[in-house]
Batch of 2 targets.
Target 1
Amino acid sequence: MQTASSSSDITSSLRESRNFKPPAEFVKRAHLKSMAQYRKLYAESIRNPDKFWGKAAAELEWMKPWTKVCDWKEPHAKWFVGGKTNMSVNCIDRHAHGWRRNKVALIWEGEPGDEPHISRARNIPYASLLRQTCQFANVLKQFGVKKGDRVIIYMPMIPEAVFAMLACTRIGAVHSIVFGGFSSEAIKDRILDCGAEVVITADGGYRRGAVIELKKNVDAALAHCPGVRHVLVVKRTEQPVHMVPGRDHWWHEVQQNASYECPPEPMNSEDPLFILYTSGSTGKPKGIYHTTAGFMLGCQMTTKYVFDAKEDDVYWCTADIGWVTGHSYSIYGALLNGLTTVLYEGAPNHPAPDRFWQIIDKFGVTIFYTAPTAIRAFIKWGEQHVLKHSLKTLRLLGSVGEPINPEAWIWYHKVVGKGRCPIVDTWWQTETGTIMISPLPGVTPTRPGTATLPFFGVDAAVVNKEGKEQPRNVGGLLVIRKPWPSMLRGIWGDPDRYRKQYWSEVKGCYFTGDGARRDKDGYFWIMGRIDDVVNVAGHRLGTMEVESALVGHKMVAEAAVVARPDDLKGQALVAFVTLKGGQVPSNDLKDQLRAHVGKEIGAHAKPDDVRFTDALPKTRSGKIMRRLLREVATGGEIRGDMTTLEDFSTLARLRHDEE
Ligand code: PRX
């Protein structure tokens, strides 16, 4: 694949013609039932977005109505200008004060199973979700958290994490969730970047039978974050942790005297709701921020139509709340629609590789949303683990995070969905907030490997660098040509980077960073990132971040990180490293470097392969020839002994004029 700067014509070799129509049984009950219906609504949403979104937003609860639907001055959008609302009211109060009050909002399953020694509610009804959220909102207030303050959440997948998110939204604090797999360095960077003064965490969390020491990681981060005044700690695993007097407080103690009632803060539509850090093509993660009303509407609408959400659904999105999918779909989209959503704390293969299928049968899950990397792992573990369980309640399957390879799609369809469940392959990003391109399950004939057609209001196109649409089946840049309600509003503290990153590549368009092509039916086939961002096991990583971590090691002089295809994880990282004078390559050092990246960023960022070289191949202007490295990493031509130096000098000379 070529980079955007060299050419925007991308060659795609994937052709897939198997077609799957929505099953008649499904269509009968679906919210939307025909292509004609989709096309009509889509055309309206593009022709008159104000009318379309204005009508949709009326389904939410407002404290004050808006005066203008969209105010667009590129690259800044304001949606529902003048309106006031509150996320927690829409997610909880609406249901808790009505007939859904005893309906289960959250079904929680801890990794260790039933764990009689830790008494916790497993089913949390809307009424109790409201009480718990308000109570914790009062705790936050007690510790001085006010509207607009940033709060870091670094927690396992336990109900308190949900109470914490919602409590922030209740009082107008801006949450920034840091995935529990991130290291103390990553926590530190995020705290400092957003200026948080309060951190919510737990003593630990369970993962594959082991305890992740969350509090310890927070302590290490806070050694460099003098601005943090308070740490609120949930007791989850009960292993001993160090509590700093005056700074650290146990959740269960401080909430004891907090009231169950907390009036919601009226939030302006455009008040920030959360910041979520994600990788870009530079070494520094970007704090993508979303605001209140538009994001909320996006979550509500897409959950309703893409997942065809119904009152009696039991919905399970397996994403951790530390990623955007966990925000928009595990929690917000589900609760906004008054659904019952499943939250599972642990790994898919603990204690055995059938844990997910066991959970589906145990709770009667009807909608299941997961990532291709997980599906490929299930395939590897063997279908016998799936076949042990009936999965008869499932009616819809979803996929997100990376392109799903046709083999995985077909397996998902046959083995998990038993041929009766439509699959929605949903394309979107942290930046887009909600699903942008996806089949509608009662409407769109699907084909393995394509996310099919844009959602309402999404003016997606495949263009060349000049912004001209590419002919059918010619690859190009995936852009969005109109603002949409749940779009990012910026990069926290860095307006220039926002404009440069997203709004300058193609004039007048939001540039996604992905390459794509459209087929004869207009279906979008996502071809992956065209910048230096890679997708490892559905997690987005900037190769530059990993490079900065590597060069931070005292023995490393220079590093270049590229991706190669990987059967299981989609992509795997290969690091080419030159050492400082006098340092000797060894397998031991290779392990040390991998561990170093784990410490600096998190285990998911560890390169699969570290290869030593005495010089990196560079162009005359000093740019690392990544394309060459990618070829080497993929082809493995120069493999040999892991510890020998790779000599790129001849290859580099040969390629000089090409770059
Ligand atoms: O490259 C696309 C890929 O994941 C990127 C967004 O990553 P992130 O912000 O971490 O959000 C992941 C969850 C929404 C995209 O730019 N991607 C996401 N979904 C798909 C996908 N690639 C192909 N098909 C998808 N369905």
Target 2
Amino acid sequence: MLMKVTAALLASAAMATAAAACELTLKASDTHPDGYPTVEGVKAMGAMLEEKTDGRICIEMFHSAQLGEEKDTIEQTQFGVIDLNRVSFGPFNNIIPESQIPSLPYIFRSVDHMHKVMDGEIGAEILGAFSDHDLVALTSYDAGSRSFYNSQKPITSLEDLAGMKFRVMQSDLFVDMVGALGANATPMPYGEVYSSIQTGVIDGAENNWPSYESSGHFEVAGYYTLDQHLMVPEVLVMSKKSWESLSEEDQALVMEAAKASTEVQRQLWAEREAASEEKVRAAGNEIITEIDKTPFIEAMAPVYEKYVTDETLKDLVARIQAVE
Ligand code: GTR
């Protein structure tokens, strides 16, 4: 017993020393729980950064929305209160026009297509657009594809969606996307979705396998229809204030560690996607895989018309579609 306690004390003392050695500790936020691939991706970035700087720069991860819901943490990141923030492109849609592009329904044909776009020149341009908004977008992460789930009935066609009420992220684009499918959208923070489904304020929401599972939404919304309307990647942003306080050398190290963490995150993502699916299926949820996506895709034309307005955005969409 005593030995155990001593060992634990020694370990925590060692950790405290390590933390104390950090000249700079970057505060990072994520809405997801510990162990979720995005949280682990940023932690991996922290480990790489600590190693490259001999423990001079560290990252402290505040997972599980400890620092707030995404929309609020984005503002805090713009102010420099939070240094790093792993979020979806979705909550940026109303403030950064280019962030709407990877958030367009059915814009990506496959995960491979999305990787080619986001890892290439087009992705760099989209990330670059954040710099006009007090942010530096470092890299993007995987988030699979999002589909509708609900507590009421199996949805197998557009007709079934009619009049139902779904939560979406706080983005006008997503409100109109759900409207164009004939359903009603309620934008609300992620953390309110579980109880809103449980109390019947909404019929359901939409998300990928790992979020459907880790949030517990699968417990209250038993029907999941794989219409895969969105493939919005995640984005890791840094406060421009925090970025500008770094030397050029340190900026390069931060960028390098962020880019390298993408590989780790993608690997973890693939594993978690499969594990979450298995868990949800084992719970007995009804998963609707037989669905004709064509009417869903066709219904999105007015959404593209409304949001892909100026030449820059039109050009981005055309170039994405041209990527093989
Ligand atoms: C998740 C995403 C989160 C958040 C959440 C939501 O898939 O990883 O960043 O955007 O969806 O729906 O609010």
